[in-house]
Amino acid sequence: MKPKERILSALKRQETDYLPCVPKFWSSPKVSGYQWKDESERLEVLINRLGVDTYLSVGLERPHHPDVKEKVWEEKPSNEKYPVLHKIFETPKGNLEAVVRKTEDWPHGQDIPLLGDFNVSRYIKPWLETAEDVEKFAYLRLPPGKEENERFREQLKNWQKLIERYQVPTYATYAMGLTSGLHLFGAQQMVMLSMDNPEIITRFLEIQHQTDIKVLKILLDSGVDIVRRNGWYESTDFWSPSQFERWVLPQLKKEVEITHQATRPLIYTMCTGIMPLLPFLSKIEFDSLDTIEPVLGNQDMDLIVKELGDKKSLWGGVSAPIHIGRGKPGDVRDAVDKAVSIFGRKGFILTAAPSIRPQWPWENVMAMIDEWKKIR
Predict the structure, then answer these.
(1) Which site in 29, 61, 89, 223 is 20 to 30 Å from 299, CA atoms measured?
(2) Residue in 131, 126, 172, 148 with CA at minimum distance from that of residue 64
(3) Residue 153 and residue 219 in contact, taking contact as beta carbons nearer than 8 Å
């Protein structure tokens, strides 16, 4: 089998020639001979040098309203250790502003993106705080129009030679739900808001969902092989099961229905905080639960397999921070062996959850891949 056929078969819980391994890397490794600068080099390293499977990620733009303008500036307040970045979007319903501390490891230069993990711990003022802010936000995440659709299809054409050369599936994230909410409101702020003013979150999710559905349909119509909802911050690390049932469940059910009408698989990403949600997850007919953390968060892999394993494919098996980041090669090999003994070979994709960071020991990465090749 080629990577596309192997991954898609595993997602459908069908037989494969061998157990797929799809490691995810935060960025290019630092090790000579395994580095990449672009997508072509990344596919070459993963498929031909490391001998693992992977996919090609594609994305669809969500434009701003044409009347939206933006400005960014930096200040150096005497009462702050770090410079402070301000960014304003001027919308037809007023200004939307974020303010962050520009720490030494701030990765976005002279900009504050709408969505990003690095924003949250550096916020002085998050993008969204009030019901009025949510209505302004609607002007910043419009559904793709004709121009965005045409650019996306042109991008797919440009990728076609790579797709055919490496025989990889195309993969696109269409929605982030409460995950993007944490990026925009801030984690603590949004959790408090969910109790004090939950109607604000309901409205925010409605606005997003309207765009997400349109994005999903464009992706499916264009022939993307795999679509993904990023539920990273939708788990009980932040929300109660009843909040998940209220805010996530109806949207995810609708998205699954649309995806399955197009006969494509839908992946749902959730790393930790899974256990209390198993009764809900088992009833939603998405195809795969992705990036399951096997060590952190007191998660029971045997119970996850019992509750979900006959209905969905599962991605995980190795803890990226514990096994790859802090372990030794022997620990990694043991983790791979244990994962296969728990998850089996049907409907399982071995990966290090959530992703492999470039500063971690390369010998641990190679130990994972070597052990997988021995027992796959």
Answers:
(1) 29
(2) 148
(3) no
d(CA 368, CA 97): 44
pTM over 0.85: yes
pLDDT digits (tens, 9 = 90+) for 252-308: 999 999 999 999 999 999 999 999 999 999 999 999 999 999 999 999 999 999 999
Positive or negative torsion for Cα 36, 37, 40, 42: positive
Report angle CA 159, 161, 167 to the nearest 5 degrees. Answer: 95
CA-wise closest residue to 60 among 208, 184, 224: 224
Strand, coil or helix: 186: coil
CATH of domain 3-62+142-375: 3.20.20.210
Residues of the chain with CATH 3.20.20.210: 3-62+142-375
The two beta strands, 313-319 and 348-353, are: parallel
Task: Return all residues near 205 (Cβ < 8 A) that are at least 6 apart.
Answer: 177, 178, 181, 247, 251
CA distance 265 to 289: 11
Tell me the three state secondary structure of residue 62: coil
